[in-house]
TrEMBL record:
This is Nucleotide-binding protein-like. The keyword Nucleotide-binding applies. It is found in: Mitochondrion. The gene is LOC109714917. It comes from the Eukaryota. Coiled coil: none annotated.
Amino acid sequence: VRHRSSVAAKGASIVGVKDIIAVASGKGGVGKSTTAVNLSVALAKACQMKVGLLDADIYGPSIPTMMNLHEKPEVDRDMKMIPIENHGVRCMSIGFLVGKDAPIVWRGPMVMSAIEKLTRGVAWGDLDILVVDMPPGTGDAQLSISQRLQLSGALIVSTPQDIALIDARRGANMFRKVQVPILGVVENMSCFECPNCGTKSYIFGQGGAQRTAEEMDMKFLGEIPLELDIRSSSDEGNPIVVASPHSASAKAYTSVAEKV
Ligand code: ADP
């Protein structure tokens, strides 16, 4: 990971944090959080960076489960919350602060004040990179986060399916509007390989994200297969990058991390 000169010039918006990147998707359920988690762990383990992971998916925080973190953060002398660490990544999530089944029914201004608390109200320490798991979509919250955090770049996750790609384009255009560089597109759930017979099935279509990336002049960062182990390791809070570091899918995530 190289620090983008534009960032150095602007200065990161959180003291001690060199770069802040968003992992975004136009649509929910395409694997944005799974990608954010595995990317963060790959950046920490394979790229040996100091990494933070912020769960900004206020209405559907998944980081506590995916990173197997369930305790409440403590506060330091300055009343800043201390991030909770697992797999070499310092994490913060609204999920640490509210009950697991509590509905989060906040309106826009409350969402932004929560984000403010989860970013500048946290003792992140020195970080090479803070990965932000964005809320899905292109609404007010996404725009405010992009602007207030002075993102160094955004990575877009999509499945190859048209309906997801349409929303991915919308997401890319939103970042362009606020002058956030797009780091590239990751195609998730690209292909399913039958564990019994080895047949490959392109359940959500083939090559769609790569075509969209080309059409929109964005880098294509790679494909992640649709795989039972990715889902189960994620549910267990032990991301595939650590659960099975030599698997093809862990290598695919690491390759994305190296390109970011
Ligand atoms: P989003 O953040 O976009 O809503 P998630 O990362 O929460 O999406 O993923 C949605 C569901 O799909 C989760 O159950 C997750 O475990 C599963 N999933 C994501 N990516 C993959 C993949 N490549 N293979 C198998 N399951 C996946």
